[in-house]
């Protein structure tokens, strides 16, 4: 469904993404992990066609997105950035309706298909009862679900999420991850997700792509990543992978070192 080949992106003189190649299957959940500045967000922006590459190409169903309009891309792909913004007084339903713009445009009225898509998006994210509630009255998890609902209203089969669990407490993180998993398994939505929490990535994703300084240094399943030694090197941490359950994914356990002497402020 979604693929890119040798995608390279620069910001000024800095090479932010170097020959990034990726192929996704329908209904797959793919995690992009790596240290800050490793190129995760740039890769997502490149896949969404929001940044023009200096090299390489992105294709949806074999068709290059460079030849598509923004509306044509939006029919197929939804992109949710790290910190989307909207007026606090906007209601959940009003926000979700914005997701139908690719179908409605500036002049056409909302028809029954649009209304059905909006209702489905809110139902899928558990927000039907909160349709008239303003964004300012939502919890962090509810607000994030509202944005995902707006992305779903596009009825795109590809969903790109940039740090969807950032700034959320653990309860809301699990809520959002559970939603992503259900969308993939129940609705066949393909998800590419940049995420910081390694163990969350290991637990929910089918495949993991590890980024370092704009390059992808690993692409595969969790068990192969656990055996590669790359996590310790790329993140510069001391730890080990452990198998909590025989059938479950590996879990990375960081070794925290106690300071030999108390940390004091310099004089």
UniProtKB/TrEMBL annotation:
The keyword Chaperone does not apply. SMART domains: AAA (SM00382). InterPro entries: AAA+_ATPase, ABC_transporter-like_ATP-bd, ABC_transporter-like_CS, P-loop_NTPase, Siderophore_ABC-ATPase. The keyword ATP-binding applies. Its main location: membrane. It is a peripheral membrane protein. Residues 2-238 form the ABC transporter domain. It holds the Pfam family ABC_tran. PANTHER family: IRON(3+)-HYDROXAMATE IMPORT ATP-BINDING PROTEIN FHUC. Belongs to the ABC transporter superfamily. This is Ferrichrome ABC transporter ATP-binding protein. It comes from Rhizobium wuzhouense.
């Amino acid at each position: 469904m979604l693929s890119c080949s040798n995608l390279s992106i620069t910001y000024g003189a800095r090479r932010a993404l170097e020959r990034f190649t990726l192929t996704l299957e329908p209904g797959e959940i793919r995690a992009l992990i790596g240290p800050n500045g490793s190129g995760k967000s740039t890769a997502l922006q490149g896949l969404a066609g929001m940044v023009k590459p200096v090299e390489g190409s992105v294709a949806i169903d074999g068709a290059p997105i460079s030849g598509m309009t923004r509306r044509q891309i939006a029919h197929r792909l939804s992109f949710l950035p790290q910190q989307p913004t909207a007026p606090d007084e906007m209601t959940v339903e009003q926000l979700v309706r914005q997701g139908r713009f690719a179908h409605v445009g500036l002049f056409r009225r909302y028809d029954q298909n649009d209304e059905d898509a909006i209702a489905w998006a809110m139902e899928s994210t558990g927000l039907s009862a909160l349709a008239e509630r303003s964004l300012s009255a939502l919890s962090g998890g509810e607000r994030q679900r509202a944005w995902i609902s707006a992305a779903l209203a596009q009825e795109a089969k590809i969903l790109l999420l940039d740090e969807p669990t950032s700034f959320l407490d653990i309860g809301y993180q699990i809520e959002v991850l559970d939603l992503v998993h259900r969308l993939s398994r129940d609705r066949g939505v393909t998800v590419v997700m940049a995420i910081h929490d390694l163990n969350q990535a290991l637990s929910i994703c089918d495949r993991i792509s590890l980024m370092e300084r704009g390059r992808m240094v690993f692409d595969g399943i969790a068990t192969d990543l656990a055996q590669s030694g790359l996590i310790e090197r790329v993140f510069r941490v001391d730890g080990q992978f452990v198998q909590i359950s025989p059938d479950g994914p590996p879990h990375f356990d960081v070794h925290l070192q106690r300071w030999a002497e108390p940390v004091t402020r310099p004089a």
